[in-house]
Specification:
6-stranded mixed sheet; about 140 residues; Nucleotidyltransferase, domain 5; alpha/beta; 5 helices; single chain; about 40% helix
């Protein structure tokens, strides 16, 4: 019997973090909104509210990969954020290449309604669902 996993995904940025939620049985995702980052600190209270509301089994973070294989300029900050997510909530963190998610999100209904970062988080999560094997 398949246990449905709820997944909370983030599109990390230095000013804003987009958030989306989904579950792996239907492989669907929905954009939730944007979390502010002030003075290099994410709004952990806002993230905590999302974790409390959705009770995720794991997190997915977009981590852009460069064409030449060198680390992206945000790689270290994304790794720190991932470590803090895991440390605070004790849930695994998975990564997916998201170098084109913000571009793909522009002009979407989610971007118009909730912001491009939230729409990018939805795309990140949908992309991750496409990469995992059905359970």
């Amino acid at each position: 019997m398949h246990t449905v996993r709820t997944v909370l995904a983030f599109d990390f940025g230095l000013r804003r973090i987009g958030a989306a939620v989904g579950q792996d049985l239907s492989r669907t995702a929905q954009a939730l909104g944007t979390i502010k980052v002030k003075q290099h600190r994410p709004d952990w209270d806002g993230i905590g509210r999302l974790v409390h509301e959705w009770q995720p089994d794991l997190f997915v973070l977009g981590r852009p990969e460069t064409a030449d294989g060198k680390p992206h300029s945000l790689a270290a900050a994304i790794e720190r954020f991932a470590g803090r997510l895991h440390g605070r909530y004790g849930k695994p963190v998975h990564f997916i290449d998201e170098r084109l998610s913000s571009y793909a999100a522009e002009g979407s209904a989610d971007a118009a309604r909730l912001g491009v970062d939230a729409a990018a988080a939805r795309i990140i999560l949908e992309t991750w669902f496409e990469t995992i094997k059905p359970r």
